[in-house]
Design goal:
Elements: H1 3-17, E1 27-36, E2 48-55, E3 58-59, E4 63-66, E5 72-79, E6 84-92, E7 95-98, E8 109-116, E9 119-120, E10 127-139, E11 142-153, E12 158-159, E13 172-174, E14 180-186, E15 193-195, E16 199-202, E17 209-220, E18 225-230, E19 236-244, E20 248-253, E21 256-263, E22 266-276, E23 282-288, H2 293-298, H3 314-320
Parallel strand pairs: 1-8, 9-12, 10-19
Antiparallel strand pairs: 1-5, 2-3, 2-4, 2-6, 6-7, 10-11, 11-17, 13-16, 14-17, 15-16, 18-23, 19-22, 20-23, 21-22
Length: about 325
Amino acid sequence: MRRALGLVAALVVLSVVGVSGVQAEGSGEIVGRLRPATPGAALPSGLVVQLDGFRQTDRLPTSEVTVGADGLFVFSDVAAGGEFAYLVSLEVEGVRYSSDVLQVQAGEGTAVEIEVFAVTETDPGISFRSLTRLLRRQTADTLSVVEVAEVHVPGNRAYLPVQQPGSPPPLRFGVPDGAFNLQPVAGFGPGDAVIGGPGFAVFAGLQPGVTTMVYGYQLALDGGTVAFDWVPALNTDVAILLVETGPLTTTVTGLEARGDDAFGGTRVLRWQKNGVAARQSFGVRIADTSLPGIVRTLRATTADRWAIFAAVPAVVARSVRT
């Protein structure tokens, strides 16, 4: 699990188990072990492991210990009790690793094991297991968009994307021309992204298996409408377009209509296509029918369409910082 998702999970846990005024029940230990997960690979020496703790929604001071030659590490005198939650994390050769959310019992040791993979800068054939784009009406002039990408890294080595001369970035996300207020949510941070295109490339290290990346942005409704091409940059097992039901009228080409669906608590219309080849294009046109036609024709927007990252909320920035 990526550290950003872990931090969010920790806060969720604390929001339901934390009780104001409850005191620590004593202290315990977190006893951990790093295990090389790539056959024949050894752990680098001098690795430093970080412990982030939370009490209810308050963050505790961060602690660090150095990993021994045997891969073992211990955090001692850790506050125990149900209102505390912890995450163990470290970075190895540009790849971030994190434990699940941990809780500590007084006088006991909490065990944690983290697999560490050898790193390659050669693309092992990454792809999208799924790519989902959700569009919702935010105002009469604006759509909010959330995209969720499941990035699959095959093999038993972590992958560190690097820019090769004369080649496109290995992991790139296209956004519609005119998108603004891009906000990373999970799986990467502002420092991992390079803007251009329109769109952006991500250069965060990826563990083998599936890493979930989530980001959002906004689109202006010029005259009450917006149209764009959606072009997945990688081979994609399934591409899904979701549009909130209500005043939005949607025309889609290249995706199969699947009817009514739900995304969280939002009722949506769903379009989908399985087995999408890289660079295959889908056309999307959306009109807001809640306004009279003459108003849609005359309405204009003054949005700064390329204020990328300018409005990233502090809480989002903190949750994805590595």
